[in-house]
Every structure is written in structure tokens, then in C-alpha cells.
């Protein structure tokens, strides 16, 4: 079992086999069903079991009458028809006596007629007693507490009495069998076993375990069986309302409902059982074929709808992705435009501040000395745009004045330095660590006439 199922835990293997009474075939089948998504037969039954239609007017019923008048003719009906069961027995006895016992002659008929009133009275009183007993002590079979245990117990007792050569029993509740038959679109054959009935033993031993019957049931239908002495079997008996035993019911999905399409009652022989089952299946096969076609069409429609939904979702995701990229592109353009706008505003502010600074520097410049002032210096500035500007300054003025003058000019760059040619040097016009206080023109060694070069440092 471990090799077949791949279960690593030996304790789990042992527990599973114990649940199936060490029936390895049933245990493996149940395990494989679990792996395929089918719930285990040991799981709780469905909360809402399927309802079976037992009132179809097209139901096929086949009843085998016994050749001898026996009490079993009416005992099977005592569970539901206590007051009329004696009349039913009387009718069945007279019918069977007429059909099968004419060979007994006048002696047999005389004995039968003499005993008939006593039998009728005895069974009538017995039925009344049983009917009254039900009000005093409810039938314990009406409470189903362990349906799977009922099935396993019946299978175990069946194999002990009749051997293991029998149809494969469905190891699950009646509701689970109905669900599987509906899902798999298969026939479900239900067998209700009457432990106390005189024909049950012969039917199980000679008919149900016949090789040809076993082969037919195992290959063409699901087979569920239980004793009516068990609560689960009694519950099914109340639903199917059998009249006698052995009792077989064929159930299938018909008109989208689980429906009883055939009832076989009485002691039936193997060949006759095969013929009856085959007849019922052939007569109702079209319903299963139609249901299979409808289910395939529904599945195809569902697959097509699913494919359409997937295509729609893929298209929707693609559209959403395109929209996201468009939003990102719009956002990127917006941010870029905002950056450009901010740069423009910053540039405008900078230029405005620069112009204000130029005007402030221009206003703060000292007046230009006269040409005949001996302490004046004439300086010619060569700007980066090859233009020339000249102005007079006083020897005592700081080099900062020269820088402020050039800074206030419209043609001068924003950042610049002033260089002298002979000798070539940069004049320290702006305070620095080396020159915290820029020198005067005289200290810088400038003569009365100088040519200074303005070097553009804006890019740097």
C-alpha cells in the first residue's frame, strides 16, 4: 500500500488500511480518489444530500413472485402498511396457491383453506402489535450516527458469509454514492439487504456473487449496498420504499435530477438479473448520453467563457499598462515642464537680482577723477567680447572699485577676473584668504595708464 500510494508515514498507512478493514484495493482506490480531488469516504457526508426522485411515472418495476405462499409476502410491507399487510398477504397467498400449487390436489387445498383463518388472524394480531410497539419504543435505526461504519460493517459481514468474490462495494455513504454517480454520469445500483428475509441468503450466494453478474456491475455501474438493519440502510429503505427483498434500485441522472429508473424486487436468477439490468440501462442510456453532451457543451461554453474572460483580462491589463505608461509620460512631461518653468523663473530671478546688484554697484561707485588730476589712473579694459571701456580711478582707491565698475557694466560677464600684462598677473580685486583686504591701485603697482584684461569665469 505504501508503494502504490507513496505515503511516507507508516502509521498513516496502517491507519488508512484499518479504516478500510485491511482491504488494500478499496484503500488504494480511496487514496487515489483523494489525490484527484474527490473527498474521502470517511469524510463527513454532504450537508445538503441530493434528493432522489422516486415518483417518476416512467419507472421500470420488475417483481419476482415466489411459487409458495409464505409469510414473507407481507412481512416486507409491515414497516409501513401494518393494517393492510394482512389483506395483502391473503391476496398474494391465494394468487400463489392458484398459480403454483394446483398439483397438491384436494388435500393440499383443504389443508390450506383450514389453516387460512388461523394464519390471517395470527399475522393480523402480530402486525397490530408491531404497530403499537413503534409508539412505545421508537425504532433505533431511525438515528444515523455512523453511516460509513454501517457500510463497512455490512461489507465485512457480507464477505465473511459469502466470500470476497462479489461486486465492488462503494465504500461511502448513500449521499456520497449519489454525488459520485451524478458527477461521473454513471448508473448507481442500490441493493438493500434484508437479513431476516428467507430469500436474501440465496440471492447473495447464487445471484449477486455470480461471475457474470459481478463482471456486469463492476464494468458498467457503481454498486452501493447496505443492510436495512443498519441505520444507514434503514434510512435509504425509508426513501426508496421497497416492498420485499431482495431489492435492487437503479438510479441515474435524468432530466437533471437523480431519479430511480428501475426497481427489481424478489428472488431473481443471474441470467434474468443481467437481462433486466441491461434492459434498464439500454432504455435510459440516451438520457446519460444527452446529459454528457449537455455537460460537454456547458464545459466548452465555460472554457470558451473562461478564455474570453482571460483574453478580456489580458486586453484590460494591456490597456491599463498603456494607460499607466501614458500617465507616467504625461507626469514626466509635466514634471519636465515644471522644471523648465522653475528654471526659467529661477533664471529670471537671477537676472533680476543680477541687474539689481549691478545697479546697486553702479550707485555706490565713487565719482571719476578729472583727467588733470595727478593722482588719477587711466585704465583701459578689454572685455571678453573684444570691446573696450576706459575710466579713470584714483591711486588711493581699492581694486574692489575696479571690480565693482566692471560688474556694473552691461557688457561684462557675471563672473570674471582682471589680469594685467606687464608683468602678467591676476589682480586681487575680491577679498580672499590671501588678500582679506584688496590692495589699492598704487599698491598693486599700476601706472598712470594701464590696459587690463577682463577674463570671463562664468562657465567655470
TrEMBL record:
<comment type="function">
    <text>Plays an important role in endoplasmic reticulum-associated degradation (ERAD) that mediates ubiquitin-dependent degradation of misfolded endoplasmic reticulum proteins. By controlling the steady-state expression of the IGF1R receptor, indirectly regulates the insulin-like growth factor receptor signaling pathway. Involved in inhibition of lipid droplet degradation by binding to phospholipase PNPL2 and inhibiting its activity by promoting dissociation of PNPL2 from its endogenous activator, ABHD5 which inhibits the rate of triacylglycerol hydrolysis.</text>
</comment>
<dbReference type="GO" id="GO:0005811">
    <property type="term" value="C:lipid droplet"/>
</dbReference>
<dbReference type="InterPro" id="IPR001012">
    <property type="entry name" value="UBX_dom"/>
</dbReference>
<dbReference type="InterPro" id="IPR029071">
    <property type="entry name" value="Ubiquitin-like_domsf"/>
</dbReference>
<dbReference type="GO" id="GO:0043130">
    <property type="term" value="F:ubiquitin binding"/>
</dbReference>
<dbReference type="InterPro" id="IPR054109">
    <property type="entry name" value="UBA_8"/>
</dbReference>
<dbReference type="Pfam" id="PF00789">
    <property type="entry name" value="UBX"/>
</dbReference>
<dbReference type="Pfam" id="PF22566">
    <property type="entry name" value="UBA_8"/>
</dbReference>
<dbReference type="GO" id="GO:0005783">
    <property type="term" value="C:endoplasmic reticulum"/>
</dbReference>
<protein>
    <recommendedName>
        <fullName>FAS-associated factor 2</fullName>
    </recommendedName>
</protein>
<feature type="compositionally biased region" description="Basic and acidic residues">
    <location>
        <begin position="318"/>
        <end position="363"/>
    </location>
</feature>
<keyword id="KW-0256">Endoplasmic reticulum</keyword>
<keyword id="KW-0963">Cytoplasm</keyword>
<feature type="region of interest" description="Disordered">
    <location>
        <begin position="314"/>
        <end position="376"/>
    </location>
</feature>
<keyword id="KW-0551">Lipid droplet</keyword>
<dbReference type="InterPro" id="IPR036249">
    <property type="entry name" value="Thioredoxin-like_sf"/>
</dbReference>
<dbReference type="Pfam" id="PF21021">
    <property type="entry name" value="FAF1"/>
</dbReference>
<dbReference type="InterPro" id="IPR006577">
    <property type="entry name" value="UAS"/>
</dbReference>
<feature type="domain" description="UBX">
    <location>
        <begin position="372"/>
        <end position="454"/>
    </location>
</feature>
<dbReference type="InterPro" id="IPR050730">
    <property type="entry name" value="UBX_domain-protein"/>
</dbReference>
<keyword id="KW-0175">Coiled coil</keyword>
<dbReference type="GO" id="GO:0036503">
    <property type="term" value="P:ERAD pathway"/>
</dbReference>
<dbReference type="InterPro" id="IPR049483">
    <property type="entry name" value="FAF1_2-like_UAS"/>
</dbReference>
Amino acid at each position: 500500500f505504501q508503494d502504490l500510494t507513496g505515503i511516507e508515514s507508516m502509521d498513516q498507512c496502517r491507519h488508512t488500511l484499518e479504516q478500510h478493514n485491511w482491504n488494500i484495493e478499496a484503500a488504494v482506490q480511496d487514496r487515489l480518489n483523494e489525490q484527484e480531488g474527490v473527498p474521502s469516504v470517511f469524510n463527513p457526508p454532504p450537508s445538503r444530500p441530493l434528493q432522489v426522485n422516486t415518483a417518476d411515472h416512467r419507472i421500470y418495476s420488475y417483481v419476482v413472485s415466489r411459487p409458495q405462499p409464505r409469510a414473507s409476502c407481507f412481512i416486507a410491507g409491515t414497516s409501513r402498511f401494518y393494517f393492510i399487510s394482512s389483506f395483502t398477504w391473503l391476496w398474494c397467498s391465494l394468487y400463489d396457491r392458484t398459480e403454483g400449487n394446483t398439483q397438491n390436489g384436494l388435500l393440499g387445498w383443504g389443508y390450506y383453506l383450514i389453516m387460512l383463518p388461523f394464519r390471517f388472524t395470527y399475522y393480523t394480531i402480530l402486525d397490530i402489535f408491531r404497530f403499537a410497539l413503534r409508539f412505545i419504543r421508537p425504532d433505533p435505526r431511525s438515528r444515523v450516527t455512523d453511516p460509513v461504519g454501517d457500510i463497512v460493517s455490512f461489507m465485512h459481514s457480507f464477505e465473511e458469509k459469502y466470500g470476497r468474490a462479489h461486486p465492488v462495494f462503494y465504500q461511502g455513504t448513500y449521499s456520497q454514492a449519489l454525488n459520485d454517480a451524478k458527477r461521473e454520469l454513471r448508473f448507481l445500483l442500490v441493493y438493500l439487504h434484508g437479513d431476516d428475509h428467507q430469500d436474501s441468503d440465496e440471492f447473495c450466494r447464487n445471484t449477486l456473487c455470480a461471475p457474470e453478474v459481478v463482471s456486469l456491475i463492476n464494468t458498467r455501474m457503481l454498486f452501493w449496498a447496505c443492510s436495512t438493519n443498519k441505520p444507514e440502510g434503514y434510512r435509504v429503505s425509508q426513501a426508496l420504499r421497497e416492498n420485499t427483498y431482495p431489492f435492487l434500485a437503479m438510479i441515474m441522472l435524468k432530466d437533471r435530477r437523480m431519479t430511480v429508473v428501475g426497481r427489481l424486487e424478489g428472488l431473481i436468477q443471474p441470467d434474468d438479473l443481467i437481462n433486466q439490468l441491461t434492459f434498464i440501462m439500454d432504455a435510459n442510456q440516451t438520457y446519460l448520453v444527452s446529459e454528457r453532451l449537455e455537460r460537454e457543451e456547458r464545459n466548452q461554453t465555460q472554457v470558451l467563457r473562461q478564455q474570453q474572460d482571460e483574453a478580456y483580462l489580458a486586453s484590460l491589463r494591456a490597456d491599463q499598462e498603456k494607460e499607466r505608461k501614458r500617465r507616467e509620460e504625461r507626469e514626466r512631461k509635466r514634471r519636465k515642464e515644471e522644471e523648465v518653468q522653475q528654471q526659467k523663473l529661477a533664471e529670471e530671478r537671477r537676472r533680476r537680482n543680477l541687474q539689481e546688484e549691478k545697479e546697486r554697484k553702479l550707485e555706490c561707485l565713487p565719482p571719476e577723477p578729472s583727467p588733470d588730476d595727478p593722482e588719477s589712473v587711466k585704465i583701459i579694459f578689454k572685455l571678453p567680447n573684444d570691446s573696450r571701456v576706459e575710466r579713470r580711478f584714483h591711486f588711493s582707491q581699492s581694486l574692489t572699485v575696479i571690480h565693482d565698475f566692471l560688474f556694473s557694466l552691461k557688457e561684462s560677464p557675471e563672473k570674471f577676473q582682471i589680469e594685467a600684462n606687464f608683468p602678467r598677473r591676476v589682480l586681487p580685486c575680491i577679498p580672499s584668504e590671501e588678500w582679506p583686504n584688496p590692495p589699492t591701485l598704487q599698491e598693486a603697482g599700476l601706472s598712470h595708464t594701464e590696459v587690463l584684461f577682463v577674463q570671463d569665469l562664468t562657465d567655470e
